[in-house]
Design brief:
With 334 residues, the protein is of the alpha/beta class. The protein has one domain: TIM Barrel, CATH 3.20.20.70. It contains 12 helices and 12 strands.
Length: 334
């Protein structure tokens, strides 16, 4: 039986967010510039074999849940066969993924066979013109095809919508209203200072923080009733009278959930991040390709997790001055 690993703040290691690629087929303006980002050369990305080895080692430290992210996971070839092998790793009992849905629909039957428990679908608007404006691609019909295919397959769907002042505020109510007749969770995410930007004024400067988002929804739907959530959850979930599904709010920039964070991130090029806001704390690609054995790699992973920032604000303060402008979310892994 695995003995769970705890950091110095008493938080267990249970959850890995695994970025399988830094590439994406959309160009959402809050994530990357219109011309895209400079992608890592293929040989600098972790191979599937390297990812499997690392995930297996992390399972010995307590990781049981893996969420595949990107970039867009389905941009990488042979993703489903990789997921099949991932599901066979001892100790891993929960595999999910985050996708923009453009390429996902044909793979939904395979995801269901694999036992994928949940899919987070990035969707900031239901309006086709606004979708094209935000993502710089006219792909909303394909995303909605994925949405309904996932529901038909019985896979739990969580919509992730970034709340952007002056961009998609009119979409908050229509998106939340999807939860009325459908068993979906619609989560609204505070916009974060990525894509090479820096919000030096801090969360107080955010026009649409978690408080205002909730007030906006309650003005239309009435009282939102809090739903108890497990430790480690990033969303504050709410039920709405008469709705099958739920709505949620993720205070990603206010960082209200750091106290129970149970995750780490593995970037596509092999960087370990113990906080979304840190600069990266361990280069596991160098360990893998430098010939380190499993025991040495496990020791390095354990040390990286044990000594974590207390929260995202501390992690941000610890970044070198030249790194205070944040990278694209596509390179971080969501």
């Amino acid at each position: 039986m695995v003995s769970p690993l705890y950091d110095q703040h008493g938080r267990p290691l249970e959850y890995l967010r695994l970025a399988v690629t830094d590439r994406c087929n959309l160009r959402c303006f809050y994530c990357m510039p219109e011309e895209g980002i400079k992608y890592m050369p293929k040989h600098e990305l972790l191979s599937y074999e390297e990812m499997l080895r690392l995930t297996g080692l992390l399972a010995t430290l307590g990781v049981r849940k893996v969420r595949l992210t990107g970039g867009e996971p389905f941009v990488r070839r042979d993703l489903v066969p990789f997921m099949e092998r991932l599901a066979q790793l001892p100790g891993i009992d929960d595999i999910s993924l985050t996708t923009n849905g453009v390429l996902t629909a044909p793979h939904v039957p395979a995801l269901a066979r694999l036992g994928v428990k949940a899919v987070n679908l990035s969707l900031d608007t239901l309006d086709r013109a606004r979708f094209a404006s935000i993502t710089r691609r006219d792909e909303l019909p394909k995303v909605m095809e994925t949405f309904y295919a996932l529901l038909d397959a019985g896979i739990q769907v969580k919509i992730n919508a970034v709340v952007m002042d002056g961009q998609n505020i009119d979409d908050l109510v229509p998106l939340a209203d999807l939860s009325r007749a459908l068993p979906v969770d619609v989560r609204f995410i505070e916009e974060m200072p990525f894509n090479g930007g820096s919000h030096e004024a801090g969360p107080a400067s955010l026009p649409w923080n978690h408080v205002r988002i909730r007030q906006h929804l309650e003005a239309h739907f009435g009282e939102l009733t809090p739903v108890p959530m497990p430790a480690g959850a990033t969303a504050s979930d709410y039920s709405i009278a008469g709705h099958q599904g739920r709505v949620g709010i993720i205070a990603a920039y206010s960082r209200t959930f750091c106290g129970t964070c149970n995750r780490l991130r593995l970037t596509a090029e092999g960087g370990i991040k113990t906080c979304l806001y840190d600069q990266g704390v361990l280069d596991v690609r160098a360990l893998l390709r430098g010939g380190k054995d499993d025991e040495q790699i496990v020791a390095a992973l354990a040390a990286a997790f044990r000594f974590r920032a207390a929260n995202g604000f501390e992690a941000e303060r610890q970044r070198p001055l030249h790194q205070l402008s944040f990278e694209s979310m596509a390179t971080i892994g969501g």
